[in-house]
């Protein structure tokens, strides 16, 4: 996969620093939580738009995000870390405190569900301010690349991303030359 299809670790760090510097206003915290969610789950933009309060760890008490009617109308549970769940819980407690279980997790300033275009625009603008070209789908690719780099678990990644076919997930399993060299050195019959 081309390097411009996902963010490097240094770019993610730069993005997170910027997001934290945006302040405590509702709009800034929604952007920060939304990007954090995408980086830690690999959810598609449409899946993020349709998330409801009841789909999140703070509501059901388990370390996963429920995705209903994802691509292909498929439901899945996306595992998340305890640290991420705690951050989302903090976001909900401060910025979505009195929301009903069926309320959307992320709402705009008019308390309406986000559109794809508004999320795309929001993330692109933040990227420009950071000096990085960023799209929502790049955040999905970034999650996938990091997941595979850390676990080498292609089937787990397939489940997390909601891919119906392993051939789709396989693009994240490409090994760089240095990693391949290290693996070959360990494999000497």
Give structural notes:
The chain has 189 residues and is mainly alpha-helical. The chain has helices at 9-21, 26-41, 45-49, 57-60, 82-95, 116-130, 136-151, 154-161, 166-169, 177-186, and strands at 64-67, 76-79. It has a single domain (3-186), classed as Intergrase catalytic core (hpI Integrase, Chain A, Orthogonal Bundle), CATH 1.10.443.10. The chain has a two-stranded antiparallel ribbon with strand order 1-2. Strand 1 and strand 2 (76-79) form a beta hairpin. Helix 1 (9-21) packs across helix 6 (116-130) and helix 2 crosses helix 7. The longest helix has 16 residues, at 26-41. The chain is globular. The model has no long low-confidence stretch (mean pLDDT 88).
Order of helices and strands: HHHHEEHHHHHH
Q: Architecture, according to CATH?
A: Orthogonal Bundle
Helix-and-strand structural type:
mainly alpha
What gross morphology would you assign? globular
Extended strand count? 2
Largest β sheet strand count, sense and barrel closure: 2 strands, antiparallel
C-alpha-based Rg, rounded: 17 Å
What is the CATH fold-level name?
A: hpI Integrase, Chain A
**Separation of the first and last Cα atoms:** 31 Å
- The CATH superfamily turns out to be Intergrase catalytic core
Q: Helical element count?
A: 10
What number is the mean pLDDT?
Answer: 88
Count of spatially separate domains = 1
Helical coverage, percent range? 55-70%
Strand content: under 5%
CATH domain class? Mainly Alpha
Low-confidence stretches: none
Strand order of the largest sheet: 1-2
